[in-house]
Sequence to fold (589 residues):
Amino acid sequence: MAILETPPVVAPDRITPGVEDIIADAKLHGNAGTGEHSMVLNMGPQHPSTHGVLRLVLEIDGEMVLALAPDIGYLHTGIEKTCEAKFYQQVVPLTDRIDYLSPMTNNLAYCLAVEKLLELEIPERAQLIRVLLNEITRIQSHLVWLGTHAMDIGALTMFLYCWREREATLRIFEAVSGQRMMTSYFRIGGLALEPPKGFYESVQTFLDAMPAHIDEYEGLLTGNPIWMGRLKGVGTLTAAEAISLGVTGPPLRASGVDWDLRRDMPYSGYEKFTFNVPTSTDGDVWARYTVRMLEMRESVKICQQAMDMLAQMPANGRIVADAPKIVLPDREQMKTQMESLIHHFKIVTEGFAVPAGEVYQAVESPRGEMGYYVVSDGTAKPYRVHMRNPSFATLQALETMCKGRLLADVVAVIGSIDIVLGEIDR
Amino acid sequence: MYDPATAITGKTAVFEAMAENPAVVALADLATDAKFDRNELTITVARENIVAACEAVKAAGYNFFEDATAVDWYPQEPRFQLSYHIVSHSLKQRLRLRVLLDSSDATVPSITPAWPSANFYEREVFDLFGINFTGHPRLTRIMMPEDWQGHPLRKDYPVEGYR
Fold:
């Protein structure tokens, strides 16, 4: 890969305004005597196209957006504070609830951060299963994005097609973890359980069918003149703007910055896989659409490589690290061996101490860079857990993308940044 | 398992061991402390130098601001630790800048002039920790309601809230 030239960081004309600024602006414009007639429009927090509880306050002149302010916090549940009162292993189920469309990615980022604090060695087989499930999560999350994004724009059929394939991924999650969405399948030190019988076969069936389904979606959308008209040239973001506004993931790559943490700062064994990182230089909603569609195809390839590597390994290899004081013992051992029973009792009642220090572990989630900053003071409870979530930062670019465009384009732009309010508000 | 002996602590030790590192070169004058632990480089700077430090590392190739947050070390002093995570797309390296603040004067210059993307992060720290950022264009609460009393992520704030 060619060394990336660093684009200069330039400030946008104005930093994301607040609700009061918008109201003040509208009053200013209305009284200026210039013949402008701007009005303030409230959108959300219950608006279906805001994908959750995002509230936007817009200043509009007719159909044109003059300014826009996001108002967030409606879903704030204080997860970071709750984490400080839990043992390290009890935080895993909380992480599912942050980005509820990619629970496995959250689990992975948190587990990797704590494993980095402990410097635990994870067996290769567990790493491969983690990568496999992460890429299935990416496909699943992109399917939700595609279905809802297309529905927002008026292509209702897409929603039904995407939900059909998403059902297959949710069944895979249910098979491994017992849960369709809040999986909590990864554990500090490995995986919770051995994948059940028939798991690899069902994943293979899904992987075999998926490329044809992506062709089907593209057949419905890619050449469609209405779809092209609504997407091309809308919500443009240059590479310099994207970097200065903290945009990551597919929107960053659609703006021409070739940066993917899976390839550039590999974690969990991603360095063993060969895959392309799709990019585009247009920076509009259309570019984000094409980048994500290509990403789904690349994810299928990564999954297939993981499946092939797993097939060459012994079927009963370890899925947890060799660390009896951190990883819960095998149930059978616990019933026969005194030591395992003691370890189990100690881990469940007292947790395990993590050496003092601080780490930041970032992974490439379907929406961009998801980072976990974990600080330990040497006890069994994290002193501080902070999540860097992609949608939170990308939301800062919303005004730059929507300004001067039509009101209907705002809906297309929100869809294109694939917003999840659970991770913004935490 | 983690061995604390692998960590390099102290400015002189880190700056000797990593003399080639672009961030170490850029911050030779501004750093007050440094740490290289678990493959992560942390450089502490004085709070009045944080914007200058950001500009210096930006010039050294650390182009992307990722994250800013705080840690409350109550009842120790200095009570607040601010952590800024910055990554370089060309060097493929990450850097943590750290600023320590006393509880009597929890104020720090905003780094939004260097990276506009710090806007929401600084508002979040202001909201949940009560740390002031001078020069921030719009320092208001972002997560909690406007009329909320207190700063929930402080360690002297109960987990269940005040009842």
Notes: Chain A touches chain B through 56 residues (CB under 8 Å). The beta strands of chain A are 38-43, 55-61, 64-71, 186-187, 190-191, 357-365, 368-376, 384-388. Residues 79-425 of chain A form a domain with the Cytochrome-c3 Hydrogenase; chain B fold (CATH 1.10.645.10).
